[in-house]
Amino acid sequence: MIQENILQLTEYGLATGLIFPEDKIYTINRLLELFELDELDDNVAQAWETKPRFTQEEAEEKLEGILNSMMEYALEQGILKEDGIVARDLFDTKIMGLLVPRPSEAIAKFRDLYQNQSPQAATDYFYKLCCDSDYIRRYRIKKDLKWTTDTEYGQLDITVNLSKPEKDPKAIAAAKLAKQSGYPKCLLCKENEGYAGRINHPARQNHRIMPIVINQSDWYLQYSPYVYYNEHCIVFNSKHTPMKIERAAFGKLLDFVEQFPHYFVGSNADLPIVGGSILSHDHFQGGHYEFAMAKAPIETEIEFSGFNDVKAGIVKWPMSVIRLTAPEKERLIDLADKILQKWRGYTDEAAFIFANTDGEPHNTITPIARRRGESYELDLVLRNNITTDEHPLGVYHPHANLHHIKKENIGLIEVMGLAVLPARLKDEMATLKAAMLSGADIRSDEAIAKHADWVDAFRAKYDSITESNIDTVIRNEIGLVFQEVLKDAGVYKCTKEGRDAFLRFIQTVNA
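-> C-alpha cells emitted (511 positions)
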C-alpha cells in the first residue's frame, strides 16, 4: 500500500501544482527514501498509470487519507517512533515538505505575480500554496463550527475552534522532559521556515514566508495555519523584537494596505490582558475579509483641531472606536499618534479610566487599517487593562457571568467582531441540548452546570424550544453573549453617560 500511497501523493502534488511533470521521478525517489524503500514496484507503477488523474478537488479530498495511510505504514515499520497527534503532525509535515517549492522559487513566483498581474494574484497564489502544502490543514479547518448572529451592531461572526489539535497526554509529558531550546525564539520568527520541529515546537518543513518591506523596514508575510477567517495572514518583523503601539506602527499598517489594498491589517494592543497575542514579537494580522466592525457606521461625527481634511467619527460599535479617513497617509499617522499620546496619559476617574496605577500603564490602542477606494481608513480602538478585586482578570474584559462561554482575552480578531470560542463548547452545547430537550436538571450535571443561569435567562424569550429550533436558539444566544463580551471590553459604554465621557476624551485631544 505504501507504494501506491507514494504515487497518490505524487499525483496530489501534480494536481495541485505543488510539483510539475518534470519533478515527478524526483519526488517519487525522495518519498521512497523517506520510507526507507529501495525501489518503486513496476507492477504498482504500471497499474497506477491506467487510473484517471486527480482533479484539484479530488486531490484535496484524498490528502488526509493518503497521509494517514502513510503514517500507519511508518508506525508499523518503526520509521515513525511514536503514535499520537503531535508525533503524527511532526511526521506528516516532513512528508509534505518534500513536495513544497524552495523558498526562492515561491518568492520569485509571488513577486512575478505581484509585479506583472496584481497584489491579489500574488496573495491568491501564496494562500493556495499554503493550503496545498498542508501547512493550512483544510480537512481540519472544515471541522470548525461557524455561524453568524444578528445584533444591533450588525452580524457578528462566531467560531468554535476545533482545528487546533489538543496535545495528547504522552506528548505533554514528553514536552516537559524535552531539552529546552531557544531556536526558533518564538512561533513567529523567520527561522521557523523549513524547521523540522520537536515535541514542544511544531514542524514547519512545509512553511513558506514572503519578504516584504513596510515603512523602510524588513518584514515577512505568512498565513495563520488555523485561518479564523478568509486568508488570515500574519505580518511579522524580521527581528524578534517586542510589540509596541507607536507612531511607526500606524505607518507600517498604512504602508501594508497601500501595497495590498485588498487586505485589511491590524495590530493587537501592546499590553497584557488587552493584547491577546504574542507580545514578544512585533507582528500584525490581516486578511481578505470584512468584519462587522468595518461595516459599522459612524454614530457621531467629530472634528480634530488642525485636521479638517480628516473625516472622523465615533463608530456605532460596543467597543470604543474612533474612525479616521483621509486620502493622505501622513495625515492619518499624525492624528493617530496625537490621539495615542493623549490616551496613554489620560485619566477620567468619573468614567473609571486610569492611565496608570502604582506605575503600571493601562491605556493603549488596537489599530486597524484598510483602504476605501483612494482613501485610507484607520480605526483606533481604545483599550484599558486595569484590574480590580471585583474583576481580577480585567475591568474591560469579559466579566465573570460570561466566562462560561468566553473567558479568554479579547484581542484584535474579537475586537472586530469575530468570536474565537474554545473547543470545549462543542461537547458542552451537545450535552446542554440533550438536557434541555429531556427536561433534565442542568445544575446537577457538572459538565454544564455553569450554563444554568444563562439558560434560565434566555428560556423565557422563546414560546417553545424544540428539537427543530434548539440548535438555532443556542447558537443565537451564544452570539448574543459575545455581544455582551464586546460591551464589557468597551471602555466607554453605549449609553448617554458613556458617550459623554467619550466626548470628554475627544475634547482633551483638541485642547
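The two ends are 75 Å apart (CA to CA).
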